[in-house]
């Protein structure tokens, strides 16, 4: 079990590596924010391949970004849980509900996860307002 400090250090290092790797993916022009845009951005911020986020594995290293996508997509109202599940590799809506519940618990327990999700929600809300 990793401590919150280990998680925070890991997230900070991940974000540093991502910054070195290049700029964050840009939102496509026109229209509103899509779940696919969110997946790409979460993948960049967490240094996890977008294919792994939509993949079938349940490993925590991939589940955490996937749960972040589910929670943020619901928070921003990007679609129903069915739509979000479809964008995440054809997952059932109940799987999305479960990921949202787990993300809420992670946000309460893990400050690094809360900062990541808050930052991304604010990032995409700025796009929605413009």
Automatic annotation (TrEMBL):
Domain of life: Bacteria
GO molecular function terms listed in the Swiss-Prot or TrEMBL record: ATP binding; sequence-specific DNA binding
Transmembrane spans: none
A biological process from GO: DNA replication initiation
Domain Chromosomal replication initiator DnaA C-terminal per the UniProt entry, residue ranges: 34-103
Name this protein carries in UniProt: Chromosomal replication initiator DnaA C-terminal domain-containing protein
């Amino acid at each position: 079990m990793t401590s919150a400090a280990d998680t925070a250090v890991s997230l900070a290092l991940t974000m540093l590596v991502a910054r070195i790797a290049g700029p964050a993916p840009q939102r496509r022009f026109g229209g509103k924010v899509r779940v696919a845009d969110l997946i790409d951005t979460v993948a960049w911020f967490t240094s996890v391949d977008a294919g792994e986020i939509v993949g079938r594995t349940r490993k925590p290293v991939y589940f955490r970004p996937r749960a972040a996508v589910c929670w943020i997509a619901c928070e921003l109202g990007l679609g129903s849980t069915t739509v979000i599940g479809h964008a995440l590799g054809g997952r059932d809506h109940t799987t999305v509900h479960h990921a949202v519940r787990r993300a809420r618990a992670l946000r309460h327990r893990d400050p690094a996860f809360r900062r990541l999700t808050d930052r991304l929600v604010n990032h995409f809300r700025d796009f929605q307002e413009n």
